Automatic annotation (TrEMBL):
InterPro entries: HTH_HxlR (IPR002577), WH-like_DNA-bd_sf (IPR036388), WH_DNA-bd_sf (IPR036390). It holds the Pfam family HxlR. This is Transcriptional regulator. Keywords: DNA-binding, Transcription, Transcription regulation. Residues 12-110 form the HTH hxlR-type domain. The keyword Cytoplasm does not apply. It comes from Mycetocola lacteus. One of its GO terms (molecular function) is DNA binding. PANTHER family: TRANSCRIPTIONAL REGULATOR, MARR FAMILY, TRANSCRIPTIONAL REGULATORY PROTEIN.
């Protein structure tokens, strides 16, 4: 049974997104970029092996999630910074939803964790469904269905 009616899987936006973002480390790179990381060494600092980081950054750039910007420090060779594109920044709600889900269903007993907050007041915020009229819709009223592609 295929409740969404999508054949083949390549037509499903979830499957297509996971082809890129489901690779180990990809969303962690985006998380670090949202937090301000731009340089290879910044991303490498979270424990990603260099060869894997190179592949993931290339995939994210090729997909339009990140862009390379050349820079050169005095006396150094030219290198690239990596910055989120608008498509990359549009992943913030995805990361925020994962923060909420992971905090709720995979809690850690102690230490530090992540929380979604506003940039100015650091007030806690939550991911929500909002209709075109701006009304917040309860999750039990939301489903995923097939519609004609745009």
């Amino acid at each position: 049974m295929n409740p969404t009616g999508l054949y083949p899987e390549s037509l499903c936006p979830i499957a297509r997104s996971l082809d890129l973002l489901g690779q180990k480390w990809s969303l962690m790179i985006v998380r670090e970029a949202v937090a301000g990381a731009t340089r290879f060494a910044d991303f490498r600092a979270i424990g990603i092996p260099s060869d894997i980081l190179t592949k993931r950054l290339t995939s994210l750039v090729d997909a339009g999630v990140m862009e390379r910007r050349p820079y050169r420090e005095a006396g150094e060779r030219a290198r690239d910074d990596y910055h989120l594109t608008p498509a990359g920044m549009a992943l913030l709600p995805v990361l925020s939803a994962l923060v909420e889900w992971g905090t709720e269903y995979l809690p850690i007993p102690a230490g530090r964790t992540l929380e979604n907050v506003t940039t100015d007041t650091h007030e806690a915020v939550h991911v929500a469904y909002v209709n075109d009229a701006g009304e917040v819709i309860n999750q039990d009223r939301v489903t995923i269905q097939t519609v004609p592609a745009a």
